[in-house]
Amino acid sequence: MRAEKARRRPNYTIIFLLFCFWVWSCNQQVTIRDTSTKLSERLPESSSFWLSQDLDFTWSTWDRALEVSQKKDIPLLYYVAAPGCDGLLENPSLLLRSLIEKNFVSVRVDPFTHPDRADHLLVAGCPALINALPDGRVFARAIDIPTDKVEQYLLRMDVAFKKRKKTLVDKVTEQPKSRLTKYSISELQLYLMASVDSKDKGLFGPQKFFHAAALTFLRQTGDSEAIAFVEDTIEVLLASPLWEDGSFRLFSYSPDWQHPAPERDLFDQAEIIGLLIEMEHWGLIEKWISYVNQSIADPESGALHGRQLQSANGEWWTDPNIYVDRMASSLIRLIDLSEIMDSVLARRLAAKGIDYIVGKCVDDSGSVSHVCNAEGATNLLKDQALVAIALSNWSKKSNNGSLMQLANKIIQAGNEKKNMNLGDEGLVYLAYWHWNYGEQSRAKQIINEARYRSNDVRQAALWGLLNLHMGQSKL
Questions:
Q1: Total domain count, the chain
Q2: Is residue 254 part of a domain?
Q3: What's phi and psi for 443, nearest 5 deg?
Q4: Rounded distance, CA 107 to CA 110, Å?
Q5: 134: preceding bond cis by omega (within 30 degrees)
Q6: Are 94 and 206 in the same domain?
Q7: Same domain, 123 and 204
Q8: SS3 326
Q9: Would you tell me the crossing angle of helices 282-291 and 266-278 to the nearest 10 degrees?
Q10: How far apart, in whole angstroms, are the C-alpha atoms of residue 344 and residue 450?
Q11: How far, in Å, CA of 139 to CA of 175, rounded?
């Protein structure tokens, strides 16, 4: 999920399963209030909140929406939005407000605090409007729609449901189910190398993400062409504006890496650092550790903040939420670096971070909160497994057996409460934990059964890494 509304984008994509109309580029800008960089220099707590451009509406809750929709026989509307990717509903007309509050059962979904809900809706980006029948089946989607087209779009959806409901039901019924796949090592290598940008380096496009897990996989195949490509790509990235002040921007709007997005995400950064560790870029890694200490880590609690957004004046707003997947993945890196580089700072950050997770993110049953300091999803398989890996790694380094016991409890809680659906990214981290700390036979079983969407590059690369180096590759 990307906060792509924080500045102008070069193009927009609107996807309708049943409808399509032309749109123009969005001229939406974001205003961000918190101007601090270091957490120790933060403004008062009240000024750390994101000032959304969306006006307040009367929203239904996620849990009750389906029931209300079926009872009233009116369609569902999900507005997927969060800090950095909102603003579709600013200055609404009376008609637009009436549509949202009366003609649809409307729910606002934050994909960062509730990634489980975003996954359920198969959201491909945000902000987004998702329309569903009263039984929950989606019949239309609008991703990054310009604000002046929202009212027209919802009017079309309202009329379509009222006048052509049977047609909608029939069309949705005919939609093929998403197919899951699994690449062999050679197939994955061919797929990734076919996506290479030989001119500007990197994979896919036109917007360029790092795809660090995929680059790591290509490097570990041992293929000379793939290794040379990865090295050339890293050289270009490190010379681009995406690398700054010890941190990496999330992506580039342009294929040449020269137009960085105003967003930093700690999960992506942890994967990039994993690749840089393999390539032994120790000077750059030391700068990243300093960045985490100065801009991400709370000096008192030890928590690591997972997202930052840049305002128009160049200053950064830090998301006050503590996202456990971002924190745990970063702690895994810091624990490695405390040993590899004998970094006192990395060791201190890791120790305080582990204490925070144990005290604030895990309940007595072993269930992990996705947002440790606010409302959000709980007991997501990815969160359970990542936290278990971090605790197990630190237990091994610190000879603290109680942390290993807690990690086992967390894994067990995830096994008991989570339906392990194929395609869940958490399975790859679960397999990694079992291979290193649990039952290797269970890890092999999970790996053999692995399936995922064919365009899920990160997950395909992570499974590829496990297949290449069981028990050796760093996730």
A1: 2
A2: yes
A3: -60, -45
A4: 10
A5: no
A6: no
A7: no
A8: helix
A9: 160
A10: 38
A11: 9
- Tell me: cis bond preceding 206? Omega within 30 of 0 counts: yes
Residue 284 included in any domain: yes
pTM here? Answer: 0.87
The token pair that represents 22 in the structure block? 């032309």
Residue 101: Cβ-neighbour burial (10 angstroms; 0-12, 13-18, 19+): middle
CATH code of 52's domain = 3.40.30.10
Asked whether residue 164 falls in the same domain as residue 224, the answer is no
126, 145, 174 — which closes off a domain? Answer: 174
115: DSSP letter: H
- Determine phi and psi for 216, rounding to 5 degrees: -65, -45
Task: List pLDDT tens digits, range 183-229.
Answer: 999 999 999 999 999 999 999 989 999 999 999 999 999 999 999 99
Both 417 and 312 in one domain: the answer is yes
Q: Which residue has the tokens 């490097």?
A: 219
Give phi and psi for 151, each to the nearest 5: -60, -45
Whether residue 346 is contained in a domain is answered as yes
Q: Measured in whole angstroms, how far is the alpha carbon of residue 375 from the centre of its chain?
A: 17
Q: How far, in Å, CA of 11 to CA of 22, rounded?
A: 12
Q: What is the DSSP string of 3-44?
A: BTTSS--S------SS------------------SSGGGPPP
Torsion of CA 91, 96, 97, 102, to 10 degrees: -170
Asked if 449 contacts 459 with a C-beta cutoff of 8 angstroms, the reply is no
User: H helices of 279-425, where?
Assistant: 282-291, 324-340, 344-360, 381-398, 401-417
- Name the residue type at position 66: L
Q: Which residues contact 386 (CB under 8 A, 6 or more apart)?
A: 324, 325, 328, 329, 332, 429
- CA distances to 6, 12, 87, 271, 462 from 211, in Å: 21, 21, 28, 9, 11
User: Cα separation of 267 and 248, whole Å?
Assistant: 11
Range of the domain at 387: 180-468
In order along its 475 residues, the chain shows pLDDT tens digits of 444 433 333 333 333 333 333 223 333 333 322 333 444 443 333 336 666 767 778 899 999 999 999 999 999 999 999 988 888 988 889 999 999 999 999 999 999 999 999 999 988 788 999 999 999 999 999 988 899 999 999 999 999 999 988 888 888 876 667 789 999 999 999 999 999 999 999 999 899 999 999 999 999 999 999 999 999 999 999 999 999 989 999 999 999 999 999 999 999 999 999 999 999 999 999 999 999 999 999 999 999 999 999 987 888 999 999 999 999 999 999 999 999 999 999 999 999 999 999 999 999 999 999 999 999 999 999 999 999 999 999 999 999 999 999 999 999 998 765 556 778 899 999 999 999 999 999 999 999 999 998 889 999 999 999 999 774 444 4
Residue 278, classified by CB atoms within 10 Å of its CB into exposed (0-12), middle (13-18) or buried (19+), is middle
